[in-house]
Design a protein that fits this description.
Helices cover about 0% and strands about 50% of the residues. Strands 2, 4, 5, 6, 9, 10 and 11 form a seven-stranded mixed β-sheet that branches. The chain is mainly beta. The N and C termini lie far apart (about 40 Å). It contains no helices and eleven strands.
């Protein structure tokens, strides 16, 4: 089992940048695929980005492709999401997730979740 704690959210002006972090505790962090999802008020939880266990493969939603970078440091049990050129539509609660194997676009396939961190983008 793994516990996930997100940090790094906050309020940023449109066009600005943020780096979200997700610290994992528990066993065998390096065995897990890691992902970021977000949920805006009144909307479902949507895929943002994911990375496989080794960090070799990354995946992005079209909406953030080219503006975001996901990476992980297995020595620190941490995964990061660097976001730039933020837009008002990026505002949401951002969640970190872990999956034992594979990378999935559906939130239903992820086993572990953090509590979320709020990102607000002012225009």
């Amino acid at each position: 089992q793994v516990q996930l704690v997100e940090s790094g959210g906050g309020t940023v002006q449109a066009g600005g940048s943020l780096r979200l972090s997700c610290a994992a505790s528990g066993r065998a962090f390096s065995y897990y695929s890691m992902g970021w999802f977000r949920q805006a008020p009144g909307k479902g939880r949507e895929f943002v980005a994911a990375i496989n266990w080794s960090g070799e493969n990354t995946y992005y939603a079209d909406s953030v492709q080219g503006r975001s970078t996901i990476n992980r440091d297995n020595a620190k049990n941490t995964v990061y999401l660097q976001m730039s050129s933020l837009r008002p539509e990026d505002a949401a609660v951002y969640y970190c997730a872990a999956a034992v194997s594979g990378v999935y676009y559906s939130p239903d396939r992820w086993s572990y979740w953090g509590q979320g961190t709020q990102v607000t983008v002012s225009s």
